[in-house]
Amino acid sequence: MKIYGIGNPLIDILLQVNDDDIAQLGLAKGTMHLIDTDERERILTYLDSRPVEYRCGGSCPNTIIALSHLGAQAAFGGKVGSDKEGDEYVKQLAGLSAASSLSRGSQPTGSSIILITPDTERTMNTFLGANREYSLADLDLDMVRKADYFYFTGYMWDTEDQKEAVLAAIKAAEEAGTQIVFDAADPFAVNRNREEFRTLILNHASILFANREEASILFDEESLEACIDQADELCRTVVIKDGSRGSVVRSPEGEFRIPVNRVKAVDSTGAGDMYAAGYLYGLNRGFGPREAGLCASWLASRIVTVKGAQFSEEEFAIVKAQLEAGAWNFVGA
Fold first, then answer.
1. How far, in Å, are 3, 28, 172 from residue 143 at the CA level?
2. What is the C-alpha separation between 220 and 258, in angstroms, rounded?
3. What's the pLDDT tens digit per position in 151-196?
4. DSSP letters of 278-324?
5. pTM (2 decimals)?
6. How big is the CA angle at 215 (ends 111 and 310), to the nearest 5 degrees?
7. Alpha carbons 42 and 48: distance in angstroms, whole number
8. d(CA 45, CA 41)
9. Could you report the per-residue pLDDT of 274-297, keeping only the tens digit for each?
10. Residues 52, 77 contacting (CB under 8 angstroms)
11. Are strands 111-116 and 32-34 parallel, antiparallel or unpaired?
């Protein structure tokens, strides 16, 4: 099985802050904000004295990198700048053993300033940079056609050029029989594109990932069950994450309540990306929707025990071995 994704490669800039810092900066805690060059400079200047870490990131890249480490044939496409940050991204990606078809743009490499509060919540400030330049000219249609699954997120609706490229990839995927996996990605993206996303899910998606807040916006419903019912009318397989209450998978095989694997969390960054990776990992192993959901829940629980949206090489090796040994079966499935 092969999985191909298109996403926004971002250099993650991780900083530990407190709630007062979030308030002083005038940010909405726990959400993703698209920022321009001036806003990026304002935030970094305010936090100039804080310790900082840099990581290879981006929502779709995080998922694909994890899948690659877990043994799936997975790759992604995107665009970075012709700058030192772009060089660093390519270098880190090579070290993570992940395949990619990255092109280079004229704008600076995209970055995400991730502000982590003591409750492990993350407030993301995303500067798209070269990602805004991703277009049809950068699209590798052969990779899309050869994949069993084409994966992308709602973040690709940030610019018309990105959206146009993804829609072309969807057309190629459908012609080739490639299944389409859509992750709503963020309430901010769903708010801006609600009707387009509903149409996209109805007409194209085989699998939908969303958290409860995103689902509530998409379907204008408060209750989880009502969201699932509406989503089920649009999409073959629906996966809705409900935080500490677990997640729900509804597919033609049935509806499955997936519990949370309880751990001590230190950073929630990347939990949704790892959930998607875990679910696709389960499909890659030939598992059904319940078992894939358990893989997703278990992998998401592991990433929140470390700082950042990715495991280190050593951590990936341990996680892979644990998954292969059946650690995902934490409820005795």
1. 9, 38, 10
2. 23
3. 999 999 989 999 999 999 999 999 999 999 999 988 989 999 999 9
4. HHHHHHHTT--HHHHHHHHHHHHHHHTTSSSSS--HHHHHHHHHHHH
5. 0.88
6. 35
7. 10
8. 6
9. 999 999 999 999 999 999 999 999
10. no
11. unpaired
